[in-house]
Amino acid sequence: MTTRISTKGIAMSTTEQATATVESASFDSAIPILRMFDERKAREFYLDFLGFSVEFEHRFEADLPLYLGISRNGLHLHLSEHHGDACPGAAVFIPTRNIEQLRDELIGKQYG
């Protein structure tokens, strides 16, 4: 979808003014930020149990909160220890194909 823009005040020929368009904004996908309170437990759950891989890790200093990017099969999540990031108890809906296969994989791990 394209949207015509006003070219008033811009030096353009009449033909350029008539055909000037801008592409509408588009979005790829959202990346949820989830709060974590215990790095060890978060890694155990998201990496070991759910099978995510670490994309990146960031701390401003060694003793400051961790901001962690993880992914699995095209799904990206960010996990944060920062006080103001995310909200405990938030919900995220993730459409999933072949969910039965994922269910069987997770049951086989006998988490908890």
Automatic annotation (TrEMBL):
Keyword line: Antibiotic resistance
Keyword Iron-sulfur: no
Alphabetical list of InterPro entries matching this protein: Bleomycin-R, Glyas_Bleomycin-R_OHBP_Dase
Statement: the UniProt record of this protein carries the keyword Calcium: no
GO biological processes: response to antibiotic
Transmembrane annotation, as ranges: none
Name the UniProt record assigns to this protein: Bleomycin resistance protein/glyoxalase protein
